[in-house]
């Protein structure tokens, strides 16, 4: 029987470590690393049933993809019930998921800590900034996570330092606290192997399409319990009416909960342009110098030349703001460059971007252009075939062959050629995030 066993859980001040054993057929989906997460608050007094949540949030979707059962000594009863609801949502979304059962020797219902505090997963992008504006009266703790789009590898140290600095500065300016979480959740899992098996079923990567709603929220559980967080918000990427297979949606995130904490998928009722409108109203009334960070190319400021930078700058213009005032070098001449890049297919675009450009097109049709260049771009966008702008984003043939070979290779053979997978890893990972 396929199984995953949570073997040992230890907490030392702000560090959580877990070891995991699996049945032979699932070994290929896990690296040799223990699962580790560090917090900037002590978790020494957090109950073991809550300490189990971060690792369960990562391994359960892998188990469900293989019809495997998961075994743990102790688990928070509220989270155990939440997992059943999340499993139902994910299995309904992805027909390749088979499900499985969580077995615990003990389920506990610890007395929740009461701090009357809330938290918000935050990067400073459009989505998380909109959620901050909507919940600013709560002075939410701004939670930033290293482990997905910013990896624990030393090569990403500068990116993490830039994010920490930016979020800390935003928090200081807006009288909020911060919480920084670092985890090896995607190197603890063998993410390239998960892609090898399941990329053909998902639009994007394993974590973006399946795991990140439950996974990122679950990582926060010990910290949230220690801080006494009643509510934890994660900003929506998509909106009502967009039915994409995506790992963070209301029917996933709103189910996630544990003793004392309820998670919320926030601002799903607003399109991306409407979220920019919320930010624009806030800028005009309270924060004229607000800076956004959404760039696909760098973390320390926006490059102004990638698709997301251009898309955000156009959205700011449509909301009546000057992009240059909020972190985006943008001039009328950029409309021509943007159109040319879209027509030439310079960027890998998917269904997400098609919906977002359609949202911009709808708003543009209701807005009087401010300049001739803007008018020309919006007239082109009105008649552009957005479906033709979407790239297939299929990796090179060599990567497809690697995936096919890895799916069928014995684990011993796979382990021998693992370095080749590490070389291909960057090309196989396709992550979209605007939080």
Write a structural description:
- By secondary structure, this protein is of the alpha/beta class.
- The chain folds into two domains: 3-116 and 145-266, no CATH class; 272-346 and 349-389, no CATH class.
- It is 45% helix and 16% strand.
- It has helices spanning 48-51, 53-65, 77-93, 126-134, 157-173, 185-188, 191-198, 206-219, 221-227, 250-253, 272-285, 307-318, 333-344, 351-364, 372-383, 386-389, 397-408, 411-416, 418-428, and strands spanning 3-12, 15-22, 35-38, 69-76, 102-108, 117-121, 141-146, 178-183, 229-235, 257-258, 261-266.
- The chain has an eleven-stranded mixed beta sheet, sandwiched between helices.
- Helix 7 crosses helix 19 (418-428), helix 12 runs parallel beside helix 14 (351-364) and helix 13 runs parallel beside helix 15.
- The radius of gyration is 22 Å and the shape is globular.
- The model is unreliable at 392-398, 400-409 and 411-432 (pLDDT under 50).
β-strand percent reads 15-25%
Q: What's the Cα radius of gyration?
A: 22 Å
Straight-line distance between termini: 39 Å
Biggest β-sheet description: 11 strands, mixed
**Largest beta sheet: strand ordering:** 5-4-1-2-3-8-7-6-9-11-10
Uncertain regions spanning at least 5 consecutive residues = 392-398, 400-409, 411-432
Task: Bin the helical content.
Answer: 40-55%
Strand tally: 11
Taking all residues together, what is the mean pLDDT? 90
Secondary-structure content class: alpha/beta
Compute the number of helices.
19
């Amino acid at each position: 029987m396929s199984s995953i066993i949570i073997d040992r859980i230890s907490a030392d001040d702000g560090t959580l470590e877990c070891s995991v054993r699996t049945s032979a057929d699932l070994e290929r989906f896990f690296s040799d690393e223990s699962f580790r997460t560090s917090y900037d608050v002590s978790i020494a007094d957090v109950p073991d049933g809550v300490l189990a949540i971060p690792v369960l949030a990562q391994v359960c979707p892998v188990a469900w993809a293989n019809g495997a059962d998961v075994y743990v000594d102790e688990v928070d009863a509220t989270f155990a019930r939440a997992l059943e609801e999340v499993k139902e949502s994910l299995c309904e979304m992805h027909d390749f998921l088979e499900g499985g059962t969580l077995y615990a020797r003990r389920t506990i219902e610890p007395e929740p800590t009461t701090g009357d505090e809330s938290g918000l997963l935050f990067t400073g992008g459009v989505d998380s900034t909109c959620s901050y504006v909507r919940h600013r009266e709560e002075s939410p703790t701004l939670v930033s996570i290293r482990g997905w789009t910013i990896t624990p590898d030393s090569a990403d140290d500068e990116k993490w330092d830039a994010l920490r600095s930016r979020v800390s500065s935003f928090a200081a300016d807006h009288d909020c606290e911060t919480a920084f979480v670092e985890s090896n959740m995607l190197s603890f899992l063998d993410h390239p192997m998960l892609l090898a098996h399941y990329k053909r079923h998902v639009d994007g990567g394993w974590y973006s399409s399946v795991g990140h709603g439950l996974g990122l929220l679950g990582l926060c559980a010990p910290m949230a319990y220690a801080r006494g967080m009643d509510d934890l918000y994660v900003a929506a990427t998509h909106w009502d009416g967009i039915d994409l297979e995506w790992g963070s949606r209301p029917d996933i995130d709103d189910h996630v909960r544990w003793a004392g904490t309820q998670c919320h998928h926030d601002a799903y009722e607003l399109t991306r342009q409407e979220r920019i409108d919320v930010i624009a109203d806030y800028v005009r009334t309270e924060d004229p110098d607000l800076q956004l960070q959404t760039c696909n190319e760098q973390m320390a400021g926006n490059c102004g030349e990638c698709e997301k930078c251009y898309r955000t700058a156009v959205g700011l213009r449509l909301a009546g703001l000057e992009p240059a005032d909020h972190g985006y070098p943008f001039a009328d001449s950029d409309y021509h460059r943007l159109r040319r890049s879209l027509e030439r297919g310079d960027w890998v675009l998917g269904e997400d971007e098609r919906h977002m450009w359609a949202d911009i097109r709808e708003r543009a049709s209701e807005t009087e252009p401010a300049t001739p260049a803007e008018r020309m771009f919006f007239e082109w966008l009105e008649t552009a075939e957005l479906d033709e702008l979407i790239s297939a984003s299929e990796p090179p043939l060599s990567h497809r062959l690697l995936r096919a070979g890895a799916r069928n290779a014995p684990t011993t053979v796979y382990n021998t050629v693992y370095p080749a997978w590490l070389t291909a890893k960057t090309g196989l990972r396709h992550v979209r995030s605007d939080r």
